[in-house]
Amino acid sequence: MTNSKHILALLLATQSSHAFTLSLLSTDRHVHDRPTSVPVMISRVDLPGGETNDDSDSSEMPIKKFAWDKDPPKTSLAAFGTTHTASPFILNAIEIAHWALIVPAFMGSLAVMQHVDVWMNVLGGDALRVSLFLLAPMMQWVAGLPPIIHHIYEDWQVAPSVLPELEGYHPTDYANERLRSVANTLLLTGQGCASLMQAHAYQGSPLPALLSACVLIYAIVGDKNNLMSNHILHLFNHNKDNPMNVTIVPAPVSSVVFFMYSQITALALALGPLAARVDSVPLKLGIVLPLVFFIIGGVSEGCITEAKFDQRVHLLAVGSFFSAFAVNAWTMSQLGQYLA
């Protein structure tokens, strides 16, 4: 009787083992049959048709990556002959230069704060106007954060961009066009707001401010598919200098119109009248030159770097932005003493 019980227990254990093994096989089959929309925590994804997304030897992937380590140049740079410019040294210099912009931007706001009593008198004793004037330089730097995020995503390389949902896109080959478009849109909108803060703080009349608010609303609600790049493609493509089509200023036309309006308004309502108020030639130049440096930097990065993809031009463009912030900080400091 005892032997029968042992034999029965052994048979049950064997059946349980077979059931457990079958359940594992079934689970493995269901994991690989699971729809692609459901994330599965595996390092290698099997695709329909026996293909795989793992096209590299995992043993070659770096274990550690520090801030100064940069990805290899994107393969699309080879068509433009600029692969050598995407060296870690140049890309690190570009990264440092971008983050360094916060120093002169902060110094510009600090210079206004150090002479806040003078600016209170100049701006009619209105605390709101003084606050807007004081925060305008820092707002210009904040507007540059979306492009910085884009640069971090691309490991500070500027390369031909492709929409990520299109066939053929891979981060090692191309830049992300959709992220680039969002960064450009936020940059233009933020820079426009910073210029209008300075303009209306100095001018003070509510009527122009109401017009600016309407243009800002247009920039926000305008057609996001009507990109400026679609209207200027012929200027940069279909010629012997470009081996492939490139997109320049992939931002909505409404955002570009708002940005251009803001620069004209700042020149007409703030920079021009303020320059006319002083007799010192260096101060007159100091008031106008930041706008000139910003334009040079914007054209260098938006129309040259993003058309030729030479990372050295990108570095020069950021140097122009740094000059704009630095000259503005010096000018605000000197104006506080001059207008006292």
CATH class: Mainly Alpha
Distance between the termini: 111 Å
The gyration radius over C-alpha positions equals: 29 Å
Domain unit count: 1
The count of helical stretches stands at 12
Q: How much helix, percentage-wise, in residues?
A: 55-70%
> How does the helix and strand content classify structurally?
mainly alpha
Q: Shape, please?
A: globular
How many DSSP-defined strands? 2
Give the strand order of the largest sheet, numbering strands 1, 2, ... along the chain: 1-2
Overall pLDDT score: 84
CATH topology: Rhopdopsin 7-helix transmembrane proteins
Architecture overview:
The chain crosses the membrane at residues 205-221, 242-261, 281-300, 312-331. It is built from twelve helices and two strands. The chain has a two-stranded parallel sheet. The protein has a single domain (96-338), classed as Rhopdopsin 7-helix transmembrane proteins, CATH 1.20.1070. Helix 6 (145-153) packs antiparallel against helix 7 (177-203) and helix 8 (206-221) runs antiparallel to helix 10. It is mostly helical and 340 residues long.
